């Protein structure tokens, strides 16, 4: 980041949920000129201490060069951009670039891109990999698609948020990349739960097995990050089973569209559906461990062992 002018553009930020807050906070702390809007203003107020400006109206963000959106769903993206009081409802000013990191479908992204283009605004689709804790550790990664000049303008700010930004081309290719990423997320967590329960059934303690796995060539940031949950059964939500099911459905739909068989993704989708059917809807998707243990005749208990998550 040496030599990068992080005040070269006026930034706007829409959406202060768990992810949005953590991302906007990193931009503010990096010294960016950033204005923030959130439906519930009080959630954005703490960002003032890091130099952010909290605005009352979405139209205030029309003054910005680049506007980031990190909201709940496609309908929310449309509302904050094109609604009666949205950013583009102001006729005298508009941003040059919109960067959307919301999880939306290919169709919704393409529709948003066209409407923005008709208004003379470029869209950079920029899904992210990580959660609030990963963001705070500076290890969020971003995949982006859209006009290359828009990516070049936005890349320094994305680098300030996390540790890596990948440009995969034009249009909605980044949405496909994120769908593929989350299909892998589902398949890997299911497999990780299976082998962890297998190791325990054979007589190992979970923390001992995962310590070996994480030190091996098969270990990853993800396996390390999920180790505390699998060892100590702390299933506070980072990603819900219902959200994972949605992404697996998107992946299977893309597989059908492009003629790619996805048997592992299909089986994993059934396992996640079973998890949801058993009532695990308000906990983390790693509760797949509990389902696997039940199917294996094991009653799980927290091992109460201090294990690292690889983020600090």
Structural overview:
The protein is an alpha/beta fold and 312 residues long. It folds into two domains: 10-171, Rossmann fold; 176-295, N-(1-d-carboxylethyl)-l-norvaline Dehydrogenase, domain 2 (Orthogonal Bundle). Helix content is 48%, strand content 11%. A six-stranded parallel β-sheet has the order 3-2-1-4-5-6, with helices on both faces. Strands 7-8-9 form a three-stranded mixed β-sheet. Helix 3 (74-82) links the parallel strand 4 (66-69) and strand 5. Helix 7 crosses helix 11 (263-277) and helix 8 runs antiparallel to helix 9 (221-232). The protein is globular. The mean pLDDT is 95.
Short description:
The protein is an alpha/beta fold and 312 residues long. It has helices at residues 18-29, 41-44, 74-82, 106-118, 132-136, 148-161, 173-201, 206-215, 221-232, 241-258, 263-277, 288-295; strands at 10-14, 33-37, 53-54, 66-69, 97-100, 122-125, 128-129, 141-144, 164-167.
Task: Compute the number of helices.
Answer: 12
Terminal Cα separation, in Å?
Answer: 21 Å
Radius of gyration, in Å, reads 21 Å
Strand line-up across the major sheet: 3-2-1-4-5-6
Q: What is the percentage of strand-forming residues?
A: 5-15%
| SSE pattern | EHEHEEHEHEEHEHEHHHHHH
The CATH class name of the largest domain reads Alpha Beta
Give the class from helix and strand content and strand pairing: alpha/beta
Helix proportion of residues, in percent? 40-55%
CATH topology of the largest domain: Rossmann fold
Overall pLDDT: 95
Low-pLDDT residue spans: none
CATH superfamily of the largest domain: NAD(P)-binding Rossmann-like Domain
CATH second-level architecture of the largest domain: 3-Layer(aba) Sandwich
- Overall, the morphology is globular
Number of domains: 2
Number of strands: 9
Summarize the biggest pleated sheet.
6 strands, parallel
């Amino acid at each position: 980041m040496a030599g990068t002018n992080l005040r070269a553009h006026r930034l706007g930020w829409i959406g202060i949920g768990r992810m949005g807050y953590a991302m906007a906070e990193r931009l503010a702390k990096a010294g960016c000129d950033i204005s923030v809007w959130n439906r519930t203003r009080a959630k954005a107020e703490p960002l003032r201490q890091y130099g952010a400006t909290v605005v009352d109206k979405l139209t205030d963000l029309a003054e910005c060069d680049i506007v980031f959106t990190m909201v709940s769903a496609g309908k929310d993206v449309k509302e904050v951009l094109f609604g009666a009081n949205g950013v583009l409802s102001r006729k005298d000013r508009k941003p040059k670039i919109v960067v959307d990191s919301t999880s939306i479908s290919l169709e919704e992204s393409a529709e948003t891109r066209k409407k923005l283009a008709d208004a003379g605004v470029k869209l950079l689709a920029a899904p992210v990999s990580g959660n609030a804790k990963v963001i705070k550790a500076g290890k969020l990664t971003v995949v982006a698609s859209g006009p290359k000049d828009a990516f070049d303008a936005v890349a320094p700010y994305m680098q300030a948020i996390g540790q890596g930004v990948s440009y995969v081309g034009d249009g909605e290719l980044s949405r496909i990349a994120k769908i593929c990423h989350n299909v892998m997320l589902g398949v890997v967590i299911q497999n990780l739960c299976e082998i962890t329960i297998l190791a325990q059934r054979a007589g190992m303690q979970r923390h001992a097995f995962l310590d070996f796995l994480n030190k091996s060539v098969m270990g990853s940031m993800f396996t390390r990050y999920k180790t505390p949950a699998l060892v100590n059964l702390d299933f506070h939500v980072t990603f819900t089973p219902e959200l994972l099911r949605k992404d697996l459905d998107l992946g299977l739909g893309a597989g059908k569209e492009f003629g790619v068989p996805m048997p592992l993704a299909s089986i994993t989708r059934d396992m996640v559906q079973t998890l949801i059917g058993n009532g695990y809807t308000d906990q983390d998707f790693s509760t797949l461990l509990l389902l696997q243990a039940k199917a294996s005749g094991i009653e799980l208990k927290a091992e109460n062992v201090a294990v690292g998550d690889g983020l600090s």
